[in-house]
């Protein structure tokens, strides 16, 4: 017993267990180094030697696994999310990604979960939060986006040693029912192209419907990446949504974007982020002719603008050469649909339409992936989402089946008479 009470010196960095003068057992475990360079030595206190020995071994296992919580600030969900989004995410992600993170943190996550201690957050807290979001009117997609944001934020907290596990990887994400999208038919596309031909920048909509460019890719297209003689374009840049701040000091009582003296605080475009997104696309002959005409029209606008012309090199530009604004471009798309008498749809539906046209034409998968800018690993999934089995394709396949089974003459459509009750007759 006397040996148990005696405190012996352990080698530097080694754990120690001893009986204190207070009658309790104590353990000391070095788990790393503090920010000031001194050893981070943790203290454990238990009633019995067996209990403190077990606790010391557990802490040593966490040290080995790298899951010991760092000493320092006791984070709440609010303080960590606000620190993460402004001091970590903002420096390393794109402007668009940061905008999404910032809205999720400010509008949803901090009001809903901010009071929790970071290390005590549980998967059930997140699942209950997602459920409350949807009960309060948020779409499942909005809740799912908030889930992705906090998963990334907590993952960074784990890497930095502030928490031992990422509970967002355990929590069940809100269920998303994939929206069924019906691409535009050939007749609808022709109506859109006819109406677009009456507009300034008409080639912008042909590019969307024929090549499936994303909005940012079309608006970020530069003349230096257009090779009309060779018959191709290179996709290298993405137009970013503009962001403004007051130029009047906030005295106009308007939002920054509507300030008469507003100032742009975000770059106009960025490089396409993925290798698959940076791609070369061949141009159909009619589109080459249309782009040549568009180039001539832009040349006339340059002469009319004179000194006001901004020589920035955009293919689709404002009358003075500046970049188009994505939000305005979206409203022009909606007006085009209305004027063409075509059913309403998202601007991104034009991309689905282009993918479907490629499918109908029987273009090989590897070529489709290159045109659409899909990464090889997820291209099959993207083809399944973007390309739709349309009526003409189903009719074509049905005709092929009929020809194979009954021959070309026997594969014609047959009208099956209905019974008086409206049901089809039984087959013998």
Automatic annotation (TrEMBL):
InterPro entries membership: CB, DNA_brk_join_enz, Integrase-like_cat_sf, Integrase_catalytic, Integrase_recombinase_N, Integrase_SAM-like_N, Phage_Integrase
Region of interest (Disordered), ranges: 1-21
PROSITE patterns: CB, TYR_RECOMBINASE
Signal peptide as annotated in the record: none
Domain Core-binding (CB): 75-158
Domain Tyr recombinase: 179-399
SUPFAM superfamilies to which the protein is assigned, alphabetical: DNA breaking-rejoining enzymes (SSF56349)
Top-level taxon: Bacteria
Keywords: DNA integration, DNA recombination, DNA-binding
Database matches in Gene3D superfamilies: 1.10.150.130, Intergrase catalytic core
Recorded family membership: Belongs to the 'phage' integrase family.
The name this protein goes by in its record: Site-specific integrase
């Amino acid at each position: 017993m006397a040996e148990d009470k005696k405190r012996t010196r352990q080698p530097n960095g080694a754990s120690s267990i001893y009986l204190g003068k207070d009658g309790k057992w104590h353990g000391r475990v070095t788990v790393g180094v503090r920010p000031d360079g001194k050893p981070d030595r943790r203290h454990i206190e238990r009633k019995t030697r067996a209990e403190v020995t077990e606790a010391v071994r557990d802490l040593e296992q966490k040290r080995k696994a790298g899951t010991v919580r760092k000493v320092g600030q006791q984070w709440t969900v609010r303080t960590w999310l606000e620190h993460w989004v402004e001091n970590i995410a903002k420096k390393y992600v794109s402007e668009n990604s940061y905008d999404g993170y910032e809205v999720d943190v400010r509008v949803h996550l901090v009001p809903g979960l901010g009071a929790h201690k970071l290390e005590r957050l549980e998967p059930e807290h997140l699942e209950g939060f997602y459920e409350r979001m949807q009960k309060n009117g948020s779409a499942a997609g909005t809740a799912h986006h908030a889930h992705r944001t906090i998963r990334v934020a907590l993952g960074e907290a784990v890497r930095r040693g502030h928490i031992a596990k990422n509970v967002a990887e355990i929590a069940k994400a809100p269920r998303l029912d994939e929206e069924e999208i019906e691409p535009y038919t050939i007749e609808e596309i022709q109506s859109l192209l006819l109406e677009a031909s009456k507009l300034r920048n008409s080639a912008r909509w042909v590019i969307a419907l024929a090549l499936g460019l994303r909005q940012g890719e079309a608006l970020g297209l530069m003349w230096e990446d257009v090779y009309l003689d060779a018959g191709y374009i290179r996709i290298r840049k993405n137009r970013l949504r503009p962001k403004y701040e007051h130029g009047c000091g906030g005295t106009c009582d308007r939002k920054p974007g509507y300030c008469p003296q507003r100032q742009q605080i975000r770059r106009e475009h960025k490089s396409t982020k993925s290798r698959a997104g940076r791609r070369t696309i061949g141009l159909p002959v009619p589109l080459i002719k249309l782009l040549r005409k568009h180039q001539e029209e832009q040349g006339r606008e340059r002469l009319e603008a004179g000194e006001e012309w901004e020589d920035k090199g955009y293919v689709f530009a404002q009358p003075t050469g500046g970049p188009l604004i994505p939000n305005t471009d979206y409203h022009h798309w909606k007006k085009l649909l209305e004027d063409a008498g075509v059913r309403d749809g998202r601007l991104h539906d034009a991309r689905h339409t282009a993918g479907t046209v490629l499918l109908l034409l029987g273009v090989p998968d590897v070529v489709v992936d290159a045109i659409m800018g899909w990464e090889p690993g997820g291209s099959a999934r993207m083809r399944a989402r973007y390309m739709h089995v349309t009526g003409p394709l189903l009719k074509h396949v049905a005709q092929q089946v009929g020809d194979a089974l009954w021959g070309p003459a026997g594969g014609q459509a047959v009208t099956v008479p209905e019974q008086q009750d409206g049901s089809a007759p039984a087959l013998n």
